[in-house]
Specification:
The chain contains 9 helices and 8 strands. It is α/β, with parallel strands linked by helices. The chain has a single domain, classed as Alpha-Beta Barrel (TIM Barrel), CATH 3.20.20.10. Strand 5, helix 6 (126-134) and strand 6 (144-151) form a beta-alpha-beta unit. The structure holds pyridoxal-5'-phosphate.
Length: 215
Amino acid sequence: MIAENINQIKQEVGHNVKLVVVSKFRSIEEIKEAYVAGQRIFAENKVQPLLERYEALPKDIEWHLIGHLQTNKVKYITPFIHTIQSVDSMKLLQEINKHALKENRIVNCLLQIYIALEDTKFGLSKAECMAILDSPLLKELSNIKITGLMGMATFTANQDQVEKEFKSLKSIFDEIKGNYHLPYFETISMGMSNDYLLAIACGSNLIRIGTMVFQ
Ligand SMILES: *Cc1c(COP(=O)(O)O)cnc(C)c1O
């Protein structure tokens, strides 16, 4: 039961952790069931399904994008997107800002940090992240807010490895929080169905859950 799953996770994680339900691959009916259960924050990892679901579902949903975003697709989502969790370049930030400005909107952005051992293509190193935050260009981006960091741990049963990766994201977050004047920098997005409790123990305050909600 989708409603029971959501309520159980919410009770388990408490009020200080935001639950983002990952709706990728699910039917509109399934997503509606989560909506009726009170869930209002959903995430997709690709632009096209995100657009279809945005059209089909109630407009008070807060939509997040959690997958790689190409600059040429930014314009399709800026009219409604709440948070882009997967920002991985200055160029992308500038593009988001440009289109958000046209729409007269503010778009929240998380910088995606590469913390896993896996050889995935996306995400910033700590140095690349710091370079973005140090850039004088950032101040000119009036229609984006950098609201935190996102990371994905290695897909492994080795809990020590996953814990190490989550802790590394938390420590980068703390370093940024302590050294930069970023008034909206509050979100640490880490933890999925199989590792969210460990992620929260390591400092996560936003979890992205798909499988466990819809099973
Ligand atoms: C699919 C996905 C999730 C959700 O994963 P589950 O294991 O189904 O909970 C979370 N984050 C990202 C970036 C994803 O692509």
